[in-house]
Amino acid sequence: MPEITPVKEPKILIAGAGIGGLTVAILLEKAGIEYQLFERDEQVCTQGSATGLGFNVMPLLEQLGLLEELKSISKIIDGTTIFKEDMEIIREIRLRNNKTLTGYDSLVTSRPQLHALLSSRVPQEKVHMNKKIVSLTQDSESVTITCADGSSYTGDILIGADGSYSSVRQALYNEMKKENILPNNTEDGDVSLVSHYMSILGTTNPMNPANFEGLQDDESHCDTVIGEERGLTWRYFTIPNNRICWRVDVQSSSMDPKLYENWLNADYNMFDVSQLPEEWKQHKLPIMGELKDLFENTPKESISKVVLEEKIFETWKHGRTVLIGDAAHRLLPNFGALNAILDAVVLVNCLYEMPSATDKHIAKAFDDYYLERFPTTKRELNSVQQMSTVLAGKTWLDTAARFVLLKLVPKYFKEKSLEYTLSYRPQALFLPRIETKGTAPLTPQRPSKKYAVYLKAQASTSTTAL
């Protein structure tokens, strides 16, 4: 009788302990797949502002047992209002009907709290801090990473979830350049990113409800103010415990270069708000108060600056290495977490379905992941760019577009939501499926044959035991 070759289960290396990397780790833990997580920093970054999570990730979070705890640290987004600087309302957008369509509320929380929630679900012995990846090598059998401290680790698959300035992406592209296989007709050869605008952001300590309207409301006040000064917009989200997540967005192409030339450095750096023009601090807030009230009540060490680039790399995979989240595509911060979570569940579903960790099966899994996520992310980028122009653009064409689109806002946003947010709600194929909620049609998701076999075997074992 011929000898049967045992199935090789994959060993996964994850670069980056951000939202995407942690979600991958949680999913692999649930799927029973071996992994190790590597973070370049010595400690977890506690900076950041609001993170909005929409309907398309809610079934997954419910599957993972995270939804109820997420609700406890979040507020419901019932709508948003766009103001002029003089507090004249440009448009109110209500989202009440979306719960009927999807069965879920949209939620907003602070990025540090979401990160802490995800981190609590990952066994700490599988997380390695201060492990900045400086190079990688891969062949038909394995992939090996080398870290700045000289240590190295080998696995079957490397997932680059290490952010916009991804070391994995840079190492992967350098390898592909040497092999002369990096596409020449894309921007992938340039691993640097070009800034379109920046955000100064933070989350306040608890504020006095007597000084800010609606701070204790169950729903979040999500307001955007379009400043008179070209390229300047500020927004905020109220969250539990009387706190406010805030952002000041600056379009670099529209501002005096002297104002922002010193801000163009690494992502999520600490930022001293004293660098901002004094007149900005006096800008009014629709919930009362001024921007300076938010600045003064936010811990200095938690105020950060993020350079915002809107870019999708064409190359997400090669050999045994694959990219997710900001390492593969760079959208706005409030969309980054959501898209990283979607990348994670689609990729892990594909890895779970692999018969074994051979080159052929890995390539098929990566292809399936890319074919699902790349077109969807491309559409999302186009939507984000349109909204950026509408909310912050200052040319006469931008003003005209804002007038037209905001006057058509109910129809426009409904179409955009139904196209992407409402219908696209992927779940983990290897966990009990959450029953479909709401009336909106879902994007079909192919069931897992592997999980069906597992359930059948479980049922058979239970029957035998009886």
UniProtKB/TrEMBL annotation:
Lineage top rank: taxon: Eukaryota
Entry keywords, A to Z: FAD, Flavoprotein, Oxidoreductase
InterPro entries for this protein: FAD-bd, FAD/NAD-bd_sf, FAD_mOase_fung
Residues of the FAD-binding domain: 11-180
Gene Ontology molecular function: FAD binding; monooxygenase activity
Pfam families in the cross-refs: FAD_binding_3 (PF01494)
Family designation: Belongs to the paxM FAD-dependent monooxygenase family.
PANTHER family the record matches: FAD-BINDING DOMAIN-CONTAINING PROTEIN-RELATED, FAD-DEPENDENT MONOOXYGENASE ASQG-RELATED
Name of the protein this chain belongs to: FAD-binding domain-containing protein
